[in-house]
Design goal:
mainly alpha
Length: 313
């Protein structure tokens, strides 16, 4: 293992590798193929829905309106619960489909970057096993996060229940807000950390050694994480700063193209250098931890399979 890892040296290597892949030489067809892989990989990245200002000045519902809504809900409880359950199942199904496609897409995009080639059909078939295993892990991780969210919500409700019954905001309600918010922040950060480690480091390990997700995570925790926690923390601080800069560039590019560059799939093509750079950045960072993980700086043979260049351990 190497010591004294730098988080800035991989930036220079990632920029050089991005130029090599996308501009030496420039190939429009290659951009569209890589962009499609990026599009697949980012399908499950989420996003928000803008609700706008629902309660505008002068249109806030009064107590009588809330009473009518409560009476209607009580009178149609079975219908409301049924519709809520249906919407929940539909949402989970959509999330599962997007995560399944995204999991396969992450390996396809990684393979394109490592091999410096643009293919869709062959990697889609080749990474079926790894993609499905990654999907199962990510889906269960999402369910675990949802479960923790529900548990924290119930805990906060139990704490605030006396104040809710008394219909006033007292010390118990304030305690419920503080405790619930703190626990939600901590659990969300923990799950977010697992997710970014999964994409940045565990997926390349799975790709290189043909390992299942849990086994690759165990290898990362056993052989890479010890002695490099500080470097990894600094890596994510630098990546956050770079991500903010990239977001500004993407926003500016979207505005300059009258939102055309912000359309699904086209955004992956327009801003492909950004996605390739960040994929290369984590690969070169992984390479610094151990020279055996030289995925980004080495182009393997076109017919190589996952695990065929596994480091000897």
């Amino acid at each position: 293992m190497q010591s004294g890892n730098s988080v800035t040296a991989p930036i220079e290597s990632a920029i050089a590798r991005t130029k090599e892949i996308l501009f030496q030489p420039f190939n429009a067809e290659k951009w569209f193929v890589l962009g499609f892989c990026v599009f697949l990989a980012n399908l499950a990245e989420g996003g928000g829905f803008s609700t706008g200002n629902v309660f505008r000045q002068g249109s806030s519902p009064d107590a009588q309106t809330f009473q009518k809504m409560g009476a209607w809900l009580s009178g149609h409880l079975i219908l409301v619960l049924g519709l809520g359950l249906l919407l929940l199942l539909l949402s989970i199904t959509l999330v599962a489909i997007f995560q399944w496609l995204s999991s396969r897409g992450h390996f396809m995009f990684l393979d394109c970057v490592v091999q410096d080639r643009a293919r869709i059909t062959e990697p889609w078939r080749r990474f079926k096993k790894l993609g499905d295993d990654l999907f199962c892990f990510r889906f269960l991780l999402g369910l675990a996060w949802l479960g923790s969210f529900i548990i924290v919500g119930l805990m906060a409700w139990l704490i605030a229940r006396p104040d809710i019954t008394a219909r006033h905001f007292g010390g118990l309600a304030l305690s419920a807000v503080l405790v619930g918010s703190g626990l939600l922040v901590l659990t969300s950060l923990a799950f977010a950390l697992v997710r970014v480690l999964l994409i940045d480091f565990v997926v390349p390990i799975m790709y290189r050694l043909d390992l299942r997700t849990v086994a690759a995570f165990a290898l990362f925790r056993r052989e890479i994480l010890p002695g490099h926690m500080g470097a990894i923390a600094l890596f994510y601080l630098i990546k956050l700063a770079l991500g903010i800069a990239a977001a500004v560039i993407i926003l500016a590019g979207t505005c300059l193209t009258c939102c055309i560059a912000g359309l699904p799939y086209l955004s992956s093509v327009f801003f492909l250098p950004v996605f390739v750079f960040f994929r290369c950045y984590s690969l070169f960072m992984l390479e610094q931890f151990d020279n055996d993980w030289n995925l980004a700086s080495k182009v393997d043979t076109p017919d190589s399979e996952p695990g065929s260049n596994a480091p000897s351990r």
